[in-house]
Write a structure and sequence with these properties.
Layout: H1 12-21, E1 27-28, H2 33-36, H3 39-48, E2 53-55, H4 58-62, E3 67-71, H5 73-88, E4 104-108, H6 110-117, E5 134-135, H7 145-150, E6 155-156
Parallel strand pairs: 1-2, 2-3, 5-6
Antiparallel strand pairs: 3-4
Length: 169
């Protein structure tokens, strides 16, 4: 695992270089307001460095990041509006129950997934004849698998991956 704080835009490219040098296989972005405005640059750097990215907000995926998994923004806004309505109608905030998200979204940028899958490192047979493949967790039984298969992305469950000799399960 590799962790790197980004203090500004000037840290972005070196952070990708460091992550790749450290052997990282993916990047998780906990975006703040400064980096959110540079999400297209983050997506470009992730493709240049062949690091699939997981993001905190759906717009980052629309702009080229690989995937987002988290609470539904629409549901959160609806619940916030309902709570504000109760407060405006006289409810005391301290008496309102604490709520947690109940609806989660998985958003995958198929264009990015396809680009990664068609790169020799992930989806094509390697020069040595091996097959790296791109693994999408254990979601093969879920509806997300069909659009990925339609896009030409081979999906393997982790349980079907070949394990190196002498590796515990």
């Amino acid at each position: 695992m590799f962790s790197r704080e980004l203090r500004g835009l000037e840290d972005l490219a070196p952070a990708f270089d460091d992550a790749k040098r450290a052997g990282s296989q993916a990047a998780i972005f906990m975006t703040d307001n400064a980096m959110f405005g540079h999400r297209k640059q983050v997506a470009e750097l992730s493709m240049t460095h062949l690091l699939p990215t997981i993001h905190s907000f759906p717009p980052e995926v629309r702009d080229g990041g690989l995937l987002f998994y988290g609470p539904s923004s629409d549901e959160n806004y609806q619940r916030a509006a309902a709570l504000a309505d109760k407060i405006l109608k006289g409810a005391r905030p301290s008496e309102l129950p604490v709520e947690q998200p109940t609806k989660f979204e998985l958003i995958i940028n198929l264009k990015t997934a396809k680009a990664l899958a068609h790169h020799e490192h992930y989806g094509r047979p390697t020069a040595a004849g091996g097959d790296a493949g791109i693994v999408v967790a254990d979601m093969c039984q879920y509806p997300v698998a069909e659009p990925l298969k339609t896009a030409g992305i081979r999906i393997r469950s982790r349980s079907r991956q070949k394990r190196p000799p002498n590796t515990a399960r």
